Structures are given as structure tokens and as C-alpha cells.
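Look over this record before class:
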Amino acid sequence: MTETKTVARNKKAFHDYFVEESFEAGIELCGTEVKSIRQGRVNLKDSWCSIDKGELFVSGMHISPYEQGNIFNRDPMRVRKLLMHKKEINRLYGVVKQTGYSLIPLSLYFKGNRVKLQLGLCKGKKLYDKREDMAKRAAKRDIERAVKEQGRN
């Protein structure tokens, strides 16, 4: 079994969207980008995915230039191609176009020595949904704190 090592997570995606389903996709990178990702210099915060002419692309993902890369460094914000089976891409295209879902990168990780991107098929949250989630989190934190205090006494 191959080992996975998470490099970056998109916490904002879980705050702004309901994640209905998730998929794994490969990503087309150059060598200096992989070295920069190994150093953890990647940001998924405002990234999104789009399907154009039957191909899947990720936009808004920032990979900082590698310090020793000099002339081989690429634009940190360039659009990168994602690698998935054609059948999966066509299914995602149909869902995204019809029902108002979005494709959002959730995490970037190494699977063995390959870089993989976890995509989420997401539906946007309304403001009251976000408030409800924050209230649930706060209540859970209060309960855990109270249980911890009971254990001490």
C-alpha cells in the first residue's frame, strides 16, 4: 500500500461549501513545482476547477517559485491540467452544468512519489448554514471542555 502525505488542505472550502462527493486526480506539474510542493509552499485557498473541451483544469492554485529553480520556474498562478479518466470528467461536466455544483480542490498530497489533488463536488452554503456550523462547533468544544473539567475533579 502506498503512503500518503498531505501537503495542503483547503479549509475555506469546508466552510463555504457542502462537500457531496470527492475524487482523486493527478496533476500535471514541472519539476521545480514538485520541489516547491515538497517544501509545503502551496496555497489552495481561492482555487477552483473548470472543464474545458473535455479536459479538467485547476485555476487559482498558488505554488511558490522554487528558490534554486532560476530559469526553470514557472508562473506561480498558472492554470494546471488535472488528470482523470474521460468517463469521470464527462460525468462531472454533466453534474456541474445541470445542478449548480462546483468543483473545488480540497487537498493536495503525495501518494507514493506522485502528487494528487482531491477534488470535491460541492454545493454552496448560505450564510445561515455557516452560522449553524459555527454554533455546532462551539457547542462541541464547550462539551469537550466540560468533560475534561469533570475528569480533573
